[in-house]
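seq as requested:
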Amino acid sequence: MHATGCIRWVITLVAIASAQEARAFPAFARKYGMACSACHVAWPIFNQQGQNFRDNGYQFRLGKDDPVTVRPEFIPVSLRTTVGYQFTRTTNQPAGTSDAPFPVVTRTGGIPAPSVDVLTGGTIATDLSFLLVISGFNPTDGLATVESAWARLDRIAGTDWLNLRVGKFELDQPASSHRAITLLYNYAAYSAKLPGSAVAFDMAENQLGLELDGHSSRSTTRYALSLVSANGDPGSTGAFSSPLLYGHVQQAFELGSTIVPWIRVGALGAVGWWPTEIATFTTTTPGTALVAPRPSGFRTRPALLRTTSRPVAQTVSIPGTGTNLKQYYRAGAELSWLLGYPSTPLFFTVAYIYGRENAGLASGTAPDGSDLSASANHFNSGFAELDWSTPARSGCATTSSSRRAPRWRCTSRGTWTGTGASTR
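struct tokens:
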């Protein structure tokens, strides 16, 4: 048995100024003529109406959802970026040498370099919704990727309990990793991974597949069941490559109290199958050699990189040939609650995630010298987050002027992970 762990705390202070409406998908605010506070306690935190609007497929069902009812000048496109200050403290980071490692604590803060998301979404027709998100454009690499691209059939058979989404989407989570307060720092607990593991699945990444979900009339009770090909999939044989079955349920309670007005509990679970064997072929390419410099009269010729007759063999994996699939698991629970007046509450979220992988999915040697491939391996992770937003000019952004009033959002999040192995 061995175990390691680390704890990370992030404190973020973000200005939510006149562009606040643009950060809560302003296309929806423009379409319906509402302030962002109609759906958000403070972006990205939904109130119950916001959760219900999202679960309905971006529909209020008040006669303005169909695109033909929208003004011709309306364009359903939004931009998102974030500026602010961020401080991060991380424990148990390796330092020293591989022969004598020792843990250190890192502390760093500053203004993170901003990135930009481009979003378009809404309804194509009544009960047919979509979302497309192009993310990136950060100064580090300047690359942009398709973060989300999906279509959804809403109210199948006329009931809120049956909706089908197909494409690339975010798994239903205790707290959205793609609607975090900044574009640069997400929930590390979702990305916890065992040392030496071959499983590339990351719960924080958007997945390719389909999702069946449903909810009550106000989304106080909701569920989501997804079948996806796990991200990082090397390609396995079968009708669904490297399949992962994921489920999440939530139950919210609206208490009507100004002290604790709202509480929500939830649970999640997943089982996946990852290939451990994959067919390969060997190809050869002309080799290269560095010819050492040699004297030539009074000068020394420079070293040259020359092609040699000796070929170099390369082993290449054949996509789609993965076999001998082994199982891995995720399970977790969550608790969220509001404390204080609903327009400016303290918002608490606590989540726990357990992961387990069967023997044969990891390789290498544990710190105690045991073979990681010979035993099942597991990890524990979680996070605790506290959010608070200062009031707008009138305490709640309900008018055009108050919607432009400066606000500040403060977030403190702690994440912890621990790994271990056992022969059980």
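Residues 14-23, 393-406 have pLDDT under 50 and may be disordered.
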